[in-house]
Amino acid sequence: MKRWLLLLLFSLPIACFTQTNTDIVIGKTDFIYSKILKENRTFFIRLPRNYNNPSFSPDKYPVLILLDGEAHFNSVCGLVEILGSGINGTHVTPDMFVIGIPNTDRTRDLTPTHDSKDFTGRERDDLKNSGGNNNFLHFIKDELLPHIDSLYRTMPYRVLVGHSLGGIAVINALYTMPETFNAYIAIDPSLWWDHQVLLKKAETYFKQNDLPNKWLYLGQANTLIHDGDSSLNTHFESIKMFSTLLQTRNYSGINWKYDYYSDDDHGSVPFISEYAGLRFIFDGYHIRPGDVISNPAKLKEQFKTFSVKTNVIFSPPEDVINSLGYNLMAINKIDQAIEYFQMNIDNYPKSSNVYDSMGEAQMKKGDTRKAIEYYQKSLQLNPNNDNARKNIAKMQEKK
Fold it and tell me: In terms of pLDDT, which residue wins out, 291 or 380?
């Protein structure tokens, strides 16, 4: 079945790919008034690929909150699309919402303390409004996320992604509200800020807190100056010190990874870090059809293990299981196909599609009674399922 997707974009535009006479839209713009910040806040939202697909069960999806949304929304949407939506059969991560938050006052919102000096010690007018990150994080936690949860089918798994000043906002969120997010991606974070205030808190924090189901990815760019002497670069050295502390004085149990990108500078490092960060925090989710197509039990065990590791229940996507079942039917492995279709019924009992697929498998196996029962169940959930109706009539004629 061909599917045409059009998400209407309103108010503030988001750059997107275009074709002649046809827009390709990756998301939309919305607004919320923040009582905490006392201002209207815009946010961009990308829906999971199958979110409005009537062929599948109304599923729930993780939420990725992206800071500096105006800079990174398009690229992160592209990453999630290719890694999680099943394009080219790729299911490395779950599909998810991407919520990009553009800035109104970047320095105010992304810095944890007030300081008007940069990492060289120079006074700067653009830093004088700094120190509002705690309010901004409470806007996300207490206003934006409940708003998103009230409008969309979200699951209780949240990822926070930030670069530069956004990177220290991510680390500050881990320090101050670790219950809000499950995973954190901090990209070349400005840990030099205010005489390394967050770096100085790190040892105590990672000694006193228990974080076994949390994930932290730290990506660092090559910002070395003066013939590679890192001691002359507070930005570079602060991140290195943070990663060393995680390696040597971390007792929290947090799952973490550090990558240094010697070929990337501060501006180019976000994309490659976002990719690696998503691969890391969803390690163990990757569905490899060749590994599991003949072993449904193996896929069940994989997702059970991943759910235990993340402390959140994840199920294999309905469309993936559906495809595996049909691939097995194509090579006449009907019983194994039925195992996969039953897995979908167990996970998505309100989906018309899963009963339709099982009906087809039972029909191919020659069990007319069961096939009709499953097709009838599919019709109960979707009276417009002409395929089920036609196959029921065909089987009843042969009786």
Answer: 380
